[in-house]
C-alpha cells in the first residue's frame, strides 16, 4: 500500500504516496486533493494526471475535449495512464487509450502501466492493458518484469 507523504500548504494540497519496493527503490504515485478532501469535476480536477489518479473518467474526457488535457507523459515520464494503473482505475485506462495514450509508455526508470498494475495487484487493469495490446512482458530499466513482482 502507498504511504502518504507530507502535504505542502496551498489551495490544493499535493501529496505523494510512496511505495518502497523490495529493492529499496521508491515509486511515486502522484496525487492531489482539495483542502476539504473532496475532488469535484471539472472545477477542482484541473489536470488529466489528477483525474486519472482519482478515477474520474468523465473529467479526463472533458479536459481532453476542451483542449486542456494531456494524456501523455510529463517531464519525468510519469503519465495519467501510470496513475490509473497504480490505483486500479480500469475505466480511466480504457478512456486514456481511446484518447491515444501510449499503453507502453514508461517513466524514466522504465516502469510502464503493466508493471505498475502488477505491482499493486490490479488484475482487471492487467486484463484491460493486455486487451489494449500493451506489452505484458516489458521489463523496467533493471530488467525486472511484471511477472517477477506480481
What does the secondary structure layout of this molecule look like, with pairings?
Blueprint (H helix, E strand, L loop, with lengths): L11 E4 L2 E3 L5 E3 L2 E4 L13 H7 L2 H9 L14 H8 L2 H9 L14 H7 L3 H9 L14 H4 L1
Antiparallel strand pairs: 1-4, 2-3
Helix pairs in contact: 1-3, 3-4, 3-5, 5-6
Brief overview:
By secondary structure, this protein is an alpha+beta fold. It is built from seven helices and four strands. It is globular.
The radius of gyration is 15 Å
- Briefly note the structural class of the backbone: alpha+beta
Strand content: 5-15%
Number of domains: 1
User: On the 0-100 scale, what is the average pLDDT?
Assistant: 74
Overall CATH class: Mainly Alpha
Strand order, main sheet: write it out: 1-4
Query: What best-fitting shape do the alpha-carbon axes yield?
Result: globular
- Secondary-structure arrangement, i.e. CATH architecture: Alpha Horseshoe
Termini separation comes to 14 Å
Level of helix content? 25-40%
Q: Helix count?
A: 7
Largest sheet: 2 strands, antiparallel
What this model shows, in words?
With 150 residues, the protein is an alpha+beta fold. The chain has a single domain (12-149), classed as Ankyrin repeat-containing domain (Serine Threonine Protein Phosphatase 5, Tetratricopeptide repeat), CATH 1.25.40.20. 35% of the residues lie in helices and 9% in strands. It contains 7 helices and 4 strands, in the order ββββααααααα. The strands form 2 sheets. It has a two-stranded antiparallel sheet with strand order 1-4. A two-stranded antiparallel ribbon has the order 2-3. A hairpin with a 5-residue loop joins strand 2 (18-20) and strand 3. The longest helix is centred in the middle third of the chain and has 9 residues, at 57-65. The radius of gyration is 15 Å and the shape is globular. The two termini are 14 Å apart. 39% of the residues are buried. The model is unreliable at 1-44 (pLDDT under 50).
Amino acid at each position: 500500500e502507498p504511504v502518504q507523504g507530507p502535504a505542502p500548504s496551498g489551495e490544493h494540497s499535493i501529496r505523494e504516496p510512496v511505495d518502497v519496493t523490495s529493492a529499496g527503490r521508491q515509486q511515486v504515485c502522484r496525487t492531489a486533493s482539495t483542502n476539504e478532501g473532496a475532488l469535484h469535476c471539472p472545477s477542482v480536477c484541473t489536470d488529466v494526471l489528477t483525474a486519472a489518479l482519482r478515477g474520474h473518467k468523465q473529467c479526463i474526457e472533458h479536459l481532453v475535449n476542451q483542449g486542456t488535457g494531456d494524456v501523455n507523459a510529463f517531464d519525468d515520464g510519469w503519465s495519467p495512464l501510470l496513475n490509473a494503473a497504480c490505483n486500479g482505475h480500469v475505466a480511466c485506462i480504457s478512456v486514456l487509450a481511446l484518447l491515444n495514450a501510449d499503453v507502453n509508455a514508461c517513466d524514466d526508470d522504465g516502469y510502464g502501466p503493466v508493471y505498475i498494475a502488477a505491482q499493486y495487484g490490479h488484475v482487471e487493469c492487467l486484463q484491460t492493458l493486455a486487451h489494449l495490446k500493451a506489452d505484458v512482458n516489458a521489463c523496467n530499466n533493471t530488467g525486472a518484469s511484471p511477472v517477477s513482482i506480481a
